[in-house]
Structure formats: C-alpha cells, structure tokens
Design goal:
Layout: H1 4-14, H2 17-20, E1 25-27, E2 32-33, E3 40-44, E4 52-56, E5 62-67, E6 69-73, E7 80-85, E8 93-100, E9 103-104, E10 108-110, H3 116-128, H4 137-140, E11 154-157, E12 159-161, E13 167-169, E14 175-176, E15 189-190, H5 191-207, H6 228-242, E16 250-254, E17 259-261, E18 270-271, E19 275-279, E20 284-285, E21 287-290, E22 307-309, E23 312-313, H7 314-331, H8 336-355, H9 377-391, H10 394-401, H11 419-428, H12 435-454, H13 474-492, H14 496-508, H15 563-568, H16 585-588, H17 592-606
Helix pairs in contact: 3-17, 5-6, 5-7, 5-17, 6-7, 7-8, 7-9, 8-9, 9-10, 9-11, 11-12, 12-13, 13-14, 13-17
The structure holds ligand 9MR (2 copies).
One ligand 9MR binds next to loops.
Length: 607
C-alpha cells in the first residue's frame, strides 16, 4: 500500500479541482468481511490529509479507531482517495459502520461463511439462463419463473447475403440445437464463449469434486445422484455437442490466411480469404441466433425471430474439442456412455480443426454477437491440453509441448484468449508430463498471479486490476484475474492470494467509486437494471429485475458503443464509466463468461 508521502507527491501531479470538490463518501464491500480477512474501505473526496476514523457497532459504540492512509488523486477513479485498514478487527457481528470526516458508511457484517450464499446464487444464474426448458419457480424463485424459451429449436443454416454483402451457401440439413444457456441479455447461443464458461464451471468441479454434491444447487436434476455442478454443466455440454456438423458434410467458407484490413475498414477487421470448399464434418457452427436483433424487453418465449445456424469456424470447433475432452474426463465413472460420447465428439472436432485450421468468424451477421477471433493458436493449445489430460496420447502431448503457448508467460483468460485454461489443466491434473515441465507450468501461473497482485499498487481502490483502459466486461476480466489468484493460492498455499481475491470481490460488492454493488441482490445499493431481455423491469413493470447473484459487465472506457455509454463518453474515467441502465449494453449487460469466473471465485472463497 502506498504511504502518505507518495500520495501527496502524486497529488501535485494529478490533482484536479473537480475531484477535490466531490462530497466525501465511504466505499466499502456492502455485504462485509470474514473475520480473518483483510478489511479495507476507501474514503473518496475527503482531501489529502490523514483523518481519524471510527468503527461503530450496531449500537453506535466505537469498537475501533485509527487514522486514514492517504493515497491521493487516483487516475482509475478520478477521485482523491484515502484508505481505512481495519483488518485487525475480527469480532463477528452485524450492523457495523465506519465513520470518518462526518460521513457514516453503509452497514456491513463480519461473519464466517460469508460467501456461501453468493456462490450458490452466482451459479443459479446458469439455471436462469437455460434455453429450451421452463424455468421453474421452485428453483428460480417465483418472480423469475417463465415458460421455455426456444423450446424446440431446430435450425437451418444462414444463406444469402450477410451485412457486408458476402453471399453464403447455407446447408441442406437442420440441427436440433435445443438447450444450452443464453449467452447474456440476448438470446444467442455461441460456441466461443459457451466454451470458456462451461470450462470454468467444470474446472470449479474438477478442483473440488465433492464441493457441489447432489442436492446442493437449486436445479431440477437435484436428487438424481449426480453432482449438481455436473448437472448444470451438462445442460451446456449437450448443447455444444448438438452444434457439431455430421460427417461427410461439405460446404464453402472463407478458408486460408487472413489478409490486412481493406482500405477504409477498421484495423481489427482483417480481410477474409476467398471461399473454398471444405470437408466440414466434425466442425461446430459458430452460433445459433436470431436473424435480426430483437427489441427489449423480449422474454425468450416471445421471440419470433427466425433462428439460424451460422457458418462453422475453427474457433467454435476447438471450443467444442476442449470442453468435450474435459467433460469426457469428468463424466468418466459418473456416466460412462456420456463420457464416451464427449470424447468421440472431441476427437472428431480436433481432427476437423486440423483439417480446417483457418476458418475464421467474420462477425458480419446482424442479430447476434460476433465473437470473432483471428488468432487461434491458443485455442489449439487449449484443446490439445484437454485432450492430452484426458487420453494421455502422444499425439496430443506433442501438440501441447510443440505449441508456443506451452510454458509461455500467461495472463488472465478470456473468450478470445484460452491458453491459460490449458495451462491450468496441465498444471493441476495429473498427466504424463514430467515433473520439471509441470513445475514450469505452475511457475508461469504463479508469476502471472504475482503480477496481478502487484496491480493493487497502481490504483487508489487497491484492486488487482490495471489502472486504466477498462474493456467491455471489465468485471468479468477482473474475476478471471481473481481466478488465477485462486489457482496460485491452491498451488502455493500462500495467504497473499486470498487477500488479493478479497480486494477484487470487495470492489464488485461496493468498494468502488460508484458506491454500488455490481452484484444484484447483494449490498445496500446493488445492480437493478442490467441489459437483459427478460429481467427488464425498468421497461415493463410486469417483468422482474435480476435475480440475486448476477454480475454486471462493469465499467468500460474503451468501447463505449451503446447509446447510453455514448452520452457518458468523455465525462468519466475508467472505474466511473458505468451506469445502471438497461440500455447500456456495453457497460451493464450480464454474460455467462462473466458470471462463471465470478462463481468460481466465490466458491473458492467459500472453500
Ligand atoms: O441487445 C444486444 C446485446 O445483447 C449485445 O451485447 C449488443 C452488442 O452486440 O448488441 C445489442 O443489440 C443492439 C444492436 O447491437 C444494435 N441495435 C440495437 C440492439 C438492441 O439494443
Ligand atoms: O464480451 C464481448 C466483448 O468482449 C466484446 O468486446 C463485445 C463486442 O463485440 O461483445 C461482448 O460479447 C457480447 C456478445 O457479442 C453478444 N452477447 C452479449 C455479450 C456481452 O455483451
């Protein structure tokens, strides 16, 4: 943590009159702390001189006191920041408040097992997002019950001109792709993103197979004798399997190396190679989604848009290969027939990706997200790692150790960067890799975690996240970083990683310059109006708000493309580029790849 001297020094460089005029506020995790954890609150807008603070119990008696630690002007929040560290206070209780500079904080608790409910609600999100089945009041809560969305989804392929005028051939078959999780506030179901989300749930199970026994979650499969975590994961796994193209299918797709962007087109949009005929058997379609964007609100059972399969891609195929290989390992001994089905799908997908390594998503269709990725070396490595961990076969070992991603420095994973998922698997699951190789992989994960911990020094709110450049879904990104801290904690047993995770969760739950909990149902002021087509109370009073345990995408100062965000542009800095508005899909959507690491981390804390 920075001392007062450095804070004042920074103040001389960065002080802005606007920040200095803010009304003082105390930002704190609005649910509270476990007794033994680090306890940090942030005082915003109270100047740069140390101030006396008090900790009050429910009766208003001072049970602790101290002096603030001045940080000074903070570029991540735009505020002048001081900190209160009361980690030494460990007495369990309710209704605690902090008081400083004439301001009193929201009440919070100090209690053991604070994260159990959070983890359970965070994973209930996946039940709530299920497609193809009625959502039952008994498992979702009465307010969130609804008829099945896309109950019987048999879709054909997109054909004809896309948004850029490129013409696609379509296909002669239809696939029954009922099921899976809706991606987010929209009703698309995407292989890229479905893959990392499913992996994350399955990894939480693989890390702690006894942690989520039958009956531990609120889902219809409870009581079937199988871990509820496997049951929830299977809802998505089955869907991913359904998206695989039958053997023998030939189609025409742009296939080959990508070129430089065309003049007048954005740099991130490379030019696509010409169409070529490929053997597409075993590949996976990129997504099944609406032909056109539906309006909000739109409970899924009311969606009348045409549903289409979009062209197969190598990225989608490798997401299937990786997760089906992982699933084969985890369902073995639980449901051997299903495990075998997963493994055979994974092998077919791997072979198809080898045959067609450069079929990229073009992101040129309206009605759904792109999840386009022009760098697939990390997906190849991830799939090879899962296949190797499951089969031990030499061909996969060679693909793993021959990859530039093997034992390279890692950073947090994301939907377009999946190498760390492979590394986590190889570092934590027993394989035929030698000790030295495993130690090297572990060292890269630990080094990444240490780098993430260091980031706490670079921002006033002391969170394990970069100081500037908040992307779309920054809260999900932060949770993926926290997941790496959890992995390093498992590998080393060092307490510092837990402290880092606490500060990441503190930020989500209220220790942020918005003074808001980004998790619905948790905190005095929490997320109310996510960009979601069913949890859309602000557009239709008959619809519900979000159920508890849903994470907002969070502040985004780099891709402020929605109409609400556009209004905010230039008027906020990193952590304050956020608004709790249903229209703000670049700031306030929810998504399976964000709630998944959030769940992983909450479950880790509860462990
Ligand atoms: O509602 C859509 C949201 O789920 C997506 O994440 C987002 C980005 O792809 O797009 C939203 O849809 C908007 C579309 O992009 C442009 N027209 C208005 C749509 C509805 O808000
Ligand atoms: O999470 C995705 C983010 O990384 C991208 O920048 C953004 C724009 O392409 O899309 C996000 O994903 C959205 C997807 O395209 C459609 N469903 C909702 C997802 C979350 O907003």
């Amino acid at each position: 943590m920075r001392g007062m001297k450095m804070g004042l020094l920074a103040g001389m460089v960065l002080a802005s009159p606007a920040a200095a005029q803010q009304r003082a506020a105390i930002d704190i995790n609005q649910i509270g702390f476990e007794p033994g954890d680090v306890k940090l609150a942030v005082v915003r807008g109270a100047g740069t001189s140390p101030l006396p603070w008090q900790l009050l119990d429910a009766d208003g008696n001072a049970v602790g006191k101290g002096e603030t630690l001045v940080y000074g002007p903070d570029a991540s929040s735009g505020a002048v920041v001081q900190r209160i560290d009361f980690s030494g206070f460990r007495r369990a209780g309710q209704g605690y408040r902090l008081s400083v500079a004439g301001v009193t904080s929201d009440p919070f608790v100090i209690a053991p097992t604070l994260y159990k409910a959070l983890a359970r609600d965070a994973v209930n999100f996946f039940y709530q997002q299920r497609a193809g089945t009625p959502i039952d009041a008994r498992f979702a809560g009465a307010a969130w019950a609804r008829p099945a969305g896309h109950a019987h989804e048999v879709a054909g392929c997109f054909s004809g001109a896309d948004e850029r005028g490129t013409s696609w051939p379509g296909c002669t078959y239809k696939l029954d792709v009922t099921g899976g999780w809706y991606d987010a506030g929209d009703h698309g179901k995407y292989l890229v993103n479905g893959g990392i989300s499913l992996w994350t749930l399955l990894n939480a199970y693989e890390r702690r197979p006894k942690g989520f026994p039958d009956g531990s979650l609120r889902i219809p499969e409870s009581g079937n004798g199988v871990s509820d975590m496997l049951d929830e994961a299977r809802w998505e796994m089955e869907f991913l399997l359904r998206m695989q193209i039958p053997d023998g299918v030939r189609t025409r797709v742009p296939s080959g190396p990508l070129g430089a962007p065309k003049p007048g087109r954005p740099a991130w949009e490379p030019s696509f190679p010409p169409f070529a005929e490929i053997d597409a058997g075993g590949m996976a379609h990129q997504k099944v989604a609406d032909r056109s964007w539906t309006a909000l609100p739109m409970p899924p059972q009311n969606d009348r848009e045409e549903r289409l399969l979009y062209p197969p891609t190598t990225g989608a195929t490798l997401n299937l290969a990786a997760t089906a290989a992982q699933g084969a390992r985890l369902w073995r001994g639980v449901d051997d027939a299903f495990a075998a089905r997963c493994l055979s799908a994974a092998r077919r997908a791997w072979a198809a990706a080898q045959r067609n390594p450069r079929v990229y998503a073009t992101s040129s269709f309206t009605g759904s997200g792109g999840y386009g990725d022009s760098e697939l070396g990390d997906e190849f490595y991830w799939a090879a790692a899962e296949l190797y961990a499951t089969t031990g076969e030499d061909a996969f070992r060679k693909a793993v150790t021959g990859s530039p991603h093997f034992a390279e420095a890692v950073r947090a994973p994301g939907w377009s960067f999946t190498a760390p998922l492979g590394t986590i698997t190889l570092a934590t699951v027993k394989t035929g890799l030698g000790d030295a190789e495993v130690q090297k992989l572990r060292a890269t994960l630990i080094a990444a975690a240490d780098g993430i911990l260091e980031q706490r020094r670079q921002n006033g709110y002391a969170i394990p996240y970069k100081a500037q450049g908040y992307p779309w879904g920054s809260n999900g990104d932060l949770m993926n970083q926290a997941m790496l801290l959890g992995v390093a904690g498992d590998l080393t047993g060092a307490a510092k990683y837990r402290a880092g995770i606490v500060s990441a969760l503190d930020y989500l739950l209220g220790r942020n310059p918005m003074g808001t909990s980004y998790v619905s149902g948790y905190g005095t002021r929490s997320l109310q109006n996510p960009h979601h087509r069913f949890w859309a109370r602000s557009l239709d009073a008959k619809l519900p708000g979000p159920p508890p345990g849903v994470l907002s995408g969070g502040p985004n100062d780099t891709a402020m493309g929605d109409p609400v965000a556009m209004q905010l542009k230039g008027k906020c800095v990193a952590q304050t580029c956020w608004v709790d508005d249903i229209g703000a899909y670049a700031l306030n959507e929810v998504a399976i790849n964000w709630n998944a690491p959030f769940f992983w981390v909450a479950a880790w804390m509860d462990d």
